[in-house]
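Today's session is about reading a structure prediction critically. Students often jump straight to the picture, but the first step is always the sequence itself: look for stretches that repeat, for charged clusters, for runs of hydrophobic residues. Only then move on to the predicted structure, which in these notes is written as discrete structure tokens rather than atom positions. Here is the chain we will use throughout the hour.
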Amino acid sequence: MPLALYNEKCKHRPVHPMDALGDPVRRLLVELLADGERPAGDLAAAVGAEHGISQPAVSRHLRVLREAGVVTSRARGPVRLYAVRTQALDEVGAWAEAVARHWRTGLDALATEVARGRLEARARPRDGGGRRPDGADEGGERQDPRPGRPAREHPRHDGDGGGR
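Below is the predicted structure for this chain, in token form.
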């Protein structure tokens, strides 16, 4: 069942799965359900032990996940069983992949430019002391231009953690 149709069936204002998964307790609940259906009592005990919250609080988190279409529940006698709705997680995954694809292109281009810059830097002629004209030694480390003085990582700080 598509998420939009599932949200239409909910009595309350629809909650987007990303909103529901924004809470660490709810993410833990989904992780606990990754291996399959589990009783609400087991979930409450596990989450309560890790996050120190009560069973009614866990029930509220489960309700949010249910209303967002992330989990389903069914009664088996006196026990309520919860399971992950994989369709909702697939939709979240598709969204994340679309965003990652956008950034991956730019980051791949950046990585290419960085690699090109490193190749060009290695190809530059070196002075008699094994340093390139930019002041870096053969390993690419920058050297202090003043003889006899060690190069400093941050020239504005003297290393005592106290600023200037």
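Discussion point for the tutorial: The helical segments are 3-9, 17-20, 24-32, 40-51, 55-67, 86-123.
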